[in-house]
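Lecture notes, unit on protein representations.

Consider one protein chain, 248 amino acids long.
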Amino acid sequence: MPIPIPNSKMRLGIVHEDARVIVVDKAPGVVSEPGRGHAADSVLNALFATRAKQLSPLGEARDYGMLHRLDRMTSGCLCCALDRDAYDFLRLEWEAHRVRKSYLAIVRLSRKLGEVGQVGSCDRPLAEKRVQGRLVSVVDAHGKPASSRWRVLARTARAMLIECEPVTGRLHQLRAHFASLGAPIEGDPIYASFEKLLPLSKAEEPPLGLHAWKLSFAHPDGGQVDAQAPPSRKFLDMLGAHGIGMDA
């Protein structure tokens, strides 16, 4: 990845910042880092507009400070380190699965709902494979270990609001796990059906009912960071369409 181009026109919500770590609230539809078709409109481009002096020295080897990524249509907490030592410390925390990530998900109900109880977990192994040219995760007995936990916050006849935690960090883990349980995440263009992996255009792409709600991790200087990003308007509108409120 080349050094990100600063983009001062992009606005970022910040849910935590200190001298060594920043957690931003990524909007749905925004990519995490520059890539094909997104050379200057990612979260990193926005961060470089005001923090290039801190992030540039980390270099490509340390992903210019970015410690994890969110899918483009997923909103919520995204964390970057602001110096090399902070990045190295937090990279180890991520790899040791000591970082706690809590998501909100809106899932559609189906006849297989019996596998999604009020509180539960899924430990189906996942393997990455290419389907119609797109890298996806599929349940595979020979795949890598993957563990997700959840509790239901509210439900209607057609959908549920779930707080879920990906204990491991596989590609599209929550999306693949819930789809495999017969309760795909609302608006998912990939795992709801493998017949049409991507919409014809961004204009046709529905909102995704997945929000990175909370992020908790040890701070490099001691203590703990507990960051929380409020659900986006699109997420709340999806909830409202199902007759569910966040105070449910």
